[in-house]
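Here is the promised in-class demo. Please do not try to memorize the tokens; focus on the logic of going from shape to residues.
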């Protein structure tokens, strides 16, 4: 009579383990998609080219806002994937988000500029001040450094956006630029200098003189 041969215990375990493991839920590591650019600096250069910076011809057109939005979306993917590493990376990302449309874009730009400063990029000091000012004005508050010069009609619309009748007044169509709303007394000129922002006297003459050793 033939003796039946059983499956050795260790082989049985090997047969069972893969089946059990396949039922486990694991969280895959987040990887950037193949469509995400790996170089934030190229997005920054494209952003600057839109604005005729660095010798590029201006590329403004009816869809510039959509192109800005695409760059912000790609920058967010790079940020979420942990691909922003250097001070330059965070500086470049901050510039992209400061050209956003919403207060959250400006707030994120301010945070990114602050990280760039912490990582050694002193050129981001002015950007940190400017993005804070832009965020404050976007939420209907007064800027504090004085970096923002808005058209008077746009500034008026920001301050009266909850008033549906305000746009019918003369202030909604006033020409020229203004720093208002602006709390010029909160931040002393010594701090403006630390952030590479011209003092109030220079702002008043619109000379835009930066403190020595600073650049935008």
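The designed amino acids, position by position:
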């Amino acid at each position: 009579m033939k003796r039946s041969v059983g499956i050795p215990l260790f082989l049985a375990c090997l047969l069972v383990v893969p089946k059990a493991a396949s039922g486990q839920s694991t969280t895959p590591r987040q990887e950037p998609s193949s469509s995400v650019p790996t170089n934030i600096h190229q997005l920054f250069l494209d952003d600057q080219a839109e604005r005729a910076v660095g010798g590029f011809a201006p590329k403004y057109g009816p869809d510039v806002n959509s192109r800005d939005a695409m760059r912000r979306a790609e920058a967010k993917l790079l940020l979420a994937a942990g691909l922003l590493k250097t001070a330059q990376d965070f500086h470049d990302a901050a510039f992209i988000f400061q050209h956003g449309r919403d207060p959250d874009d400006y707030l994120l730009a301010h945070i990114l500029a602050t990280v760039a400063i912490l990582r050694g990029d002193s050129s981001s000091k002015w950007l940190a001040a400017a993005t804070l000012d832009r965020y404050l004005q976007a939420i209907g508050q007064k800027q504090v450094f004085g970096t923002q010069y808005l058209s008077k009609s746009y500034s008026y619309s920001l301050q009266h956006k909850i008033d549906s009748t305000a746009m019918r007044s003369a202030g909604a169509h006033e020409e020229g630029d203004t720093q208002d709303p602006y709390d010029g007394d909160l931040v002393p000129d010594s701090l403006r200098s630390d952030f590479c922002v011209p003092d109030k006297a220079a702002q008043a003459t619109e000379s835009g003189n930066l403190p020595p050793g600073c650049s935008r």
